[in-house]
Design brief:
2 domains; TIM Barrel; 33% helix; globular; 15 helices; 19 strands
Length: 404
């Protein structure tokens, strides 16, 4: 956030955390998840006694983990697997799953493409039209497994696709774009009102992504059942370089969580906050929740699963954009099963496996019995925490020294 104001004769730190970027330009210092750390409590808990569950609309999930609405992460099989393990997967209704009856060939082609040809290939593959019958089929297939069915649409396609998915049995709809506000307006006549969409569908409507208190509060007041936080921190996202837009995730989560708490105090309605992007290890999960998130959305972390449709690769929803790609395909490899990544036992030493146990252990050390109690633990600024005393790990590329 920057404002024009009178500057002093020389640059100086300003009370309240602001700093002078230059004469007349006051800016706020912000922090990433890597800049913060949790302080253990004076009174700890047995990790087996903590409760990691959270509620989204009428549904209670054992684990605060969502699989990201990306073609490299979620298909019908992953949706079922996440549900059985206690989490939730979100299916992208504008991806390959709803453009091709058998998307395996397209997924294989993306995995096999050279780095200098993959963007053009994806742009071509994603030009195939979205088919209403495939939207119905995919939603029906997820429902047939007994899983809660969550789907994602962009604001531009929400008016068309969300009712089709809801009528096919979708339990909740995530309206998601790089940046979302309560009302998306266009001079070309396309306007999305989140409030009207929520009233029309009759199922929980989730909204993302945002990074500010004001935008989050607007979404909550419009009836969003959850708000997703994160612009640009994802492993495959290039929005920050392409657009220059974003707020480091620790600050963004804290600001949106403050909006949630103020909204609760005023209305009595609790709107969960989901941290989305830049979360790859147990430490990332824990710090995101300590900053105020009720759950985390995982992309690259789950693209590494044996069950993931990306075949060891990961790319974002905006990567195949026809005119301005804001993502890239990255190789993440296949490191274990979905169960290992979420519940263990860990087969790696870098914190990317057994995310649930990492969360339970940290909650115990911080004395938190529930997710909402984790929102009150002590945080410190500690940008060197990950490298302090770890020279051997980095030189040998083991543990914390592994490339993320």
């Amino acid at each position: 956030m920057a404002t024009r104001t009178e500057a002093p004769a020389a640059n100086a730190t300003i009370a309240g955390g602001g700093e002078w970027l230059g004469r007349g330009r006051l800016v706020r210092r912000t922090y990433s998840l890597e800049d913060v750390a949790l302080v253990p409590a004076a009174s700890t808990r047995d990790p087996e006694d903590v409760d990691t569950s959270w509620q989204l609309g009428p549904y209670v999930f054992r684990l605060p983990f969502l699989a990201a609405a990306m073609d490299s992460v979620v298909d019908v099989g992953m949706a079922e697997a996440m549900w059985r393990l206690g989490g939730l997967a979100v299916l992208n209704l504008e991806g390959l799953q709803t453009r091709y009856p058998e998307p395996a060939d397209a997924l294989a082609a993306i995995a096999a493409a050279g780095q200098d040809e993959v963007v053009a290939l994806m742009q071509r593959l994603y030009q195939a039209p979205i088919r209403d019958d495939l939207v119905v089929a995919r939603v029906g297939a997820i429902k047939a497994t007994g899983a809660v069915c969550a789907v994602s649409v962009t604001p531009a396609a929400a008016a068309r696709l969300a009712p089709i998915a809801q009528q096919a049995g979708a339990d909740m709809v995530l309206v998601q774009s790089t940046v979302i506000t309560e009302a998306h307006r266009s001079t070309r006549g396309r306007t999305l009102s989140l409030r009207q969409l929520a009233d029309r569908l009759g199922v929980p409507v989730l909204a993302g992504n945002c990074v500010s208190y004001e935008a989050a509060l607007g979404l909550m007041e419009a009836g969003a059942a959850a708000v997703f936080v994160g612009v640009g921190p994802g492993a495959a996202c290039t929005s920050r370089r392409v657009l220059g837009i974003g707020v480091p995730q620790a600050t963004a989560i804290c600001d949106v969580a403050a909006a949630r708490d103020d909204h609760l105090a005023r209305t009595g309605r609790y709107v969960p906050v989901v941290a989305d992007g830049g979360i790859a290890t147990g430490g990332d999960v824990v710090k995101a929740i300590a900053c105020g998130a009720d759950a985390v959305m995982l992309g690259s972390a789950l693209a590494r699963a044996v069950e993931a449709p990306g075949r060891g690769f990961h790319w974002g929803m905006a990567t195949p954009h026809a005119a301005l790609p804001r993502g890239t395909r990255i190789r993440v490899g296949t490191t274990g099963t979905l169960r290992q990544i979420l519940l263990g036992p860990a087969a790696t030493d870098d914190g990317s496996h057994n995310l649930a146990e990492a969360l339970r252990t940290a909650m115990g050390m911080c004395g938190a019995a529930t997710i909402r109690e984790m929102h009150r633990v002590e945080l410190v600024l500690a940008p060197q925490l990950g490298v302090e005393g770890k020279a051997a790990q980095f030189s040998q590329q083991v543990g914390q020294g592994r490339a993320r």
